[in-house]
């Protein structure tokens, strides 16, 4: 095939240009440390790198979510711990007040401190984070969680919705607890049923213990222990109207067992005195503390009133214990979630490291190989340029000469 002089000239120039571009590419790869300078360098590797970048960005977002959720859980943990400290102080005050050696003035002084602790609890339940969000308001984070009126009635203004935070592909975690779960939905009494004295009782009898001894036999009905005489009582299921126990002999402090439960009465009940048992209901910690304040501020005149006061104090203590148990359960659950966050964060970090290693293998320059190829291309360029110069000097006239 005949090659014209212009064609020979252009081929030489094109070859030199290609070698120069190749040398420039290797120089860039060596100086930047990156093999993939543009998608066309390796379309398959470039597509894989894009997928890795997307997954890495997702992991980094999950890491930010985890950090945020962890901070919010820490804030709830701190508020709950402080709430438990306040409740423990209230409990100590009730125990001290219960021993019977304090004067009415002492009791009112204790009531004043318990009032301060109630305000402290409401303030803790209204804790706000650095963003100004109420951490116990559920998802209604811009709404003050709790409000208290002059009569010490505390209302929940938030909702029962908690936020789910994505912390990994296909996995979320509940950020925290709504206020009703922490301070509101607390079973009163012993958690199963609650006891009470009849409002018109005139004797000194009071319930001193109550428990479920046979859960399989327990039925959540209302019951009444009715004294027909100071030493005789009946037990009636007031839900059905059926008499459960009839004409029982009363013995001070002796267990009365029925419906899978056991209760004890001490003191001297009077004829027509009643003692009721009803299923436990939800009672907020704030209602529990208000009840304690009311009891501490009660003025005692009769033996029956003093018996009712002692019973009310016992019930207040039981309700405080239920509240502390609930707070501790929430705190434990938060701790478990924080452990899950830490474990997932470690998994995310490991995955991110693996992806970075794969990405490095796709895009990073093999310096030894690149330097070798650069040397080869440089030598080839020198040879091509020398050959081009020699070819430029060739012509038919030179040959005939």
Question: Can you summarize this structure?
Answer:
With 401 residues, the chain is an alpha+beta fold. Helices cover 54% and strands 16% of the residues.
How would you describe this protein?
- The structure is a single chain.
- With 401 residues, the chain is α+β, with helices and mostly antiparallel strands.
- Among the domains are: 53-187 and 320-351, f41 fragment of flagellin, N-terminal domain (Up-down Bundle), CATH 1.20.1330.10; 193-279.
- The protein has eight helices and twelve strands.
- The strands form four sheets. A five-stranded antiparallel beta sheet has the order 5-12-7-8-9. Strands 6-11-10 form a three-stranded antiparallel beta sheet. A two-stranded antiparallel sheet has the order 1-2.
- The longest helix is centred in the last third of the chain and has 61 residues, at 303-363.
- The chain is elongated, with a radius of gyration of 41 Å.
- It starts with a helix and ends with a helix.
- The mean pLDDT is 86.
